[in-house]
Amino acid sequence: MADDVAATERSRGGMSEQRRRRVRLEISREAARLFWAQGVDGTSGDQIAEAVGLSTRTIWRHFRSKESCAEPIVAQSVEWELTSLRSWPLHRSLEEHFATEAKRFVNEISPLEQADAGLGVKMMRLAETEPALRTAWLMACDQVEHELAGVIATRLGRKPDDLEVRLHAAATGASLRVINEYVGAGLLDGADPRELGDENFAFIADAVRTATGGAVGDPVHVDGAPAEPDEAAADRQGI
Amino acid sequence: MADDVAATERSRGGMSEQRRRRVRLEISREAARLFWAQGVDGTSGDQIAEAVGLSTRTIWRHFRSKESCAEPIVAQSVEWELTSLRSWPLHRSLEEHFATEAKRFVNEISPLEQADAGLGVKMMRLAETEPALRTAWLMACDQVEHELAGVIATRLGRKPDDLEVRLHAAATGASLRVINEYVGAGLLDGADPRELGDENFAFIADAVRTATGGAVGDPVHVDGAPAEPDEAAADRQGI
DNA sequence: GCACATTGCGTCACTTAATGCCAAAATGGC
DNA sequence: GCCATTTTGGCATTAAGTGACGCAATGTGC
User: Fold this and answer.
1) B167 touches chain A (CB under 8 A)
2) What's the CA gap between A33 and A55, in Å, rounded?
């Protein structure tokens, strides 16, 4: 019943894992659209189900609650930060890395993902007045913080559950959240969507440095390899 | 948080604002007890009602949802931080102020409040595994952050919605949250409850200084009044 | 003291979010 | 094609949460 097998890739898990995410994201898209259009309380599970073309029962199979339908869209809106953070090489500064990542991100993004990002910002805004949605937003930030703990632990050569690492991760995550909220609010109020210059990344990086007492943000000196980072170090960060 | 069934003004029918809070706290106490004993999902609204000796309908008159029944107890567990922060004189350092506040707090606390504090810690722990409760905890932290924005704005001579102030408040709040979680976990795992020495306040203050790049934590120099760093003046507040 | 308005509470009926159960459809390996 | 597993839909059901009405308690004016 449970699992098996070693030989092949997984028949059940492998495909489903990916497919499941797609379904959840599709549901989340419609739910977010409806939430924004008519509010959370004004949107019923049946409406979401009808909009996405599934039965109501199936909606509750994919999401534990109505509000959690917004989670994938919100999570995806911070996904680029997460992947950027995960691939942050030890020897680079935060502004350098974010700048190149943002460039790559802008080139690779599809119209659909762009629309999703817009929905994510709208959910962020909606979260300010709808306590039900605030959970989704705070949960996403929570995940960022957790991921940050791993990244910071690597850069400082400590454990992720080290108290100091947790403090740095929490402060960094909180700063990123405030900046996200600030930028998102600006975008919704009609700010120029193409205003993300290099000075913004410098601002973000400085905010992180301030929040961590300078412990996070700068390149990390690796023992014995001052000039050029060796393969091992690069591999650990997965460039 | 304060938005359940907004009790607008009160003058006519006598007791409300104050009595209402008491009723809510009483309900919250029983709810927290049950949540801790049998989990959130394992506790029904009827059980809470029976435990507190009210009808189920009345429970829903005081709380909009089952999980929100835990909010008052959680909020009260950070209340001392809130009041301490609010009364933080410009000319005192954070460790000084927290030390004296903690002393006053320990002397004034009643057995009931002590039990409530214990329940609050338990809800904090429960929030790690019960997403429904995590909202209550994160909401309480949210309020702390908001309050912090006001305090920090005063100390830096800026506006509470200033971006830098918001960043400092967020980073400080996140640090306090981590420390709360850390201390709370330690207490629940059987740590000595009377272990809160002065070095702990120094640790907290240093964490805040680190999270704000040194901008918050030290005495603030007021124009024309030379600030004495140590035990000089203890009973003055100025804005 | 008595009528009075106001408010809180309880009871019942009701809507809706959410789960369990079972059968039909879809999916993937052979 | 066949079979095993998973996914889905429909239906019944539980539990969360609301609305409506009546009653009891309390405060106010007389």
Assistant:
1) yes
2) 18
